[in-house]
Design goal:
The chain has about 140 residues and is an alpha+beta fold. The chain has a single domain, classed as 3-Layer(aba) Sandwich (Aminopeptidase), CATH 3.40.630.30. About 30% of the residues lie in helices and about 25% in strands. The protein has four helices and five strands; from the N terminus they run E-H-H-E-E-E-H-E-H. Strands 1-2-3-4-5 form a five-stranded mixed β-sheet, with helices on both faces. The protein is globular and about 40 Å long.
Length: about 140
């Protein structure tokens, strides 16, 4: 297992993985996706992390470090788009990625790390709790735009 930040050439594998969120959920290769990708890669606070098996991208999550004027000016981290290929689940990829993201957030000086999941599956919620996240400290709301 290799865990690292993605590189420019990892976009096709990442989009292929994102299709497992929902068909049509991933941006299509081409102009718009590549422009978005360049912007993400240029943003020092935006970290797309990936796990590879045999050179194939099999799991990913995004860590965004948000500058902040509270908590002594310490930033906080947001985790999004946690996904593991359907054929590679229950093998530790997402756990390794979340640990890597936490270490990266800590090295950036973050005072907390937050994530939300759209899943209501008890196994998914237990997975995040086992990874060190709790569902009792905050209440999350979402407004779709």
């Amino acid at each position: 297992m290799e865990i690292r930040e993605v590189l420019r050439g990892d976009l096709p594998g990442l989009l292929r993985l994102y299709e497992q969120f929902d068909k049509g959920a991933a941006a299509e290769m081409g102009g718009p996706a590549e422009n978005i990708w360049r912007g993400i890669l240029a943003d020092k606070n935006h970290h797309v992390l990936a796990a590879f098996s045999g050179g194939r991208l099999v799991s990913s999550c995004v860590l965004v470090v948000v500058p902040n004027l509270t908590h002594g000016g310490r930033p906080y981290g947001l985790i999004e788009n946690v996904i593991t290929d359907e054929d590679c689940r229950q093998q530790g990829y997402a756990t390794a990625l979340l640990d890597y993201a936490a270490a990266l957030a800590q090295s950036a000086g973050c005072y907390k790390l937050m994530l939300m999941t759209g899943s209501k599956k008890e196994s998914t919620l237990r997975f995040y709790e086992k990874a060190g996240y709790n569902k009792t400290d905050k209440t999350a709301f979402i407004r779709w735009l």
